[in-house]
């Protein structure tokens, strides 16, 4: 409500993890919870629960809208899913689960994650990336998937499209593709608060913010870009082992300089 929170629905067994407002229908919001997809609609100036659909065991995340009544999401227990929603009957009229037959070598330990960029669905399973084309998935051979420097981090890749450009990030890396350009440029924030990128959002106040392990950072166009810090190599301990393996000696991390 305008002056106090208003309950739309309650549940004793689940919580909502994602909320996406439709870009095709301004009066529609999709919500992913632990066990259901909830659909909210705007009626008489108030948001109301229209209907819900059980996920039937999927551990869903990464909800994207790709058509007027079409959504996709990843599943940490299986392959990505595409649903067609019937708003008149208030149900999912079609559910498709994509796996080996549709081109995905599914990693059973990680399941699948999704992101949406350039009007195309991208999927990740394990250390492999895929892109959806002509009804099936093929290996993703372009950025931003190819920018991730460690294959084990590929499943963390998230892409957010904002008026300031398209941002892609994992916990360790952040890139920007500026409006009207094709190249993804790495961003170095130059602060310890930037460790561990989490969520990136462009708010209704037209400010871009990104959550990290240590706080929330806010974009300021007047702030100069931080240069990339030079690489540094250090050692916590240095040890030497005798030829017979019987003696282990800890050595100093620095030694005095000597003329050559």
Protein traits:
0% helix, single chain, four-stranded antiparallel beta sheet, mainly beta, 44% strand
Describe this structure in words.
With 260 residues, this protein is mostly beta strands. It has strands at 16-21, 28-33, 36-43, 46-54, 60-67, 70-75, 78-86, 91-97, 113-117, 120-125, 128-133, 136-139, 158-162, 165-169, 174-177, 185-186, 200-202, 208-211, 216-218, 238-241, 248-251. The model has no long low-confidence stretch (mean pLDDT 89). It has a four-stranded antiparallel β-sheet, with no helix packed on it. A four-stranded antiparallel β-sheet has the order 5-6-7-8, with no helix packed on it. Strands 9-10-11-12 form a four-stranded antiparallel β-sheet, with no helix packed on it.
Short structural description:
The protein is built from no helices and 21 strands. With 260 residues, it is mostly beta strands. A four-stranded antiparallel sheet has the order 1-2-3-4, with no helix packed on it. It has a four-stranded antiparallel sheet with strand order 5-6-7-8, with no helix packed on it. A four-stranded antiparallel sheet has the order 9-10-11-12, with no helix packed on it.
How would the blueprint of this fold be written?
Layout: E1 16-21, E2 28-33, E3 36-43, E4 46-54, E5 60-67, E6 70-75, E7 78-86, E8 91-97, E9 113-117, E10 120-125, E11 128-133, E12 136-139, E13 158-162, E14 165-169, E15 174-177, E16 185-186, E17 200-202, E18 208-211, E19 216-218, E20 238-241, E21 248-251
Antiparallel strand pairs: 1-2, 2-3, 3-4, 5-6, 6-7, 7-8, 9-10, 10-11, 11-12, 13-14, 14-15, 15-16, 17-18, 18-19, 20-21
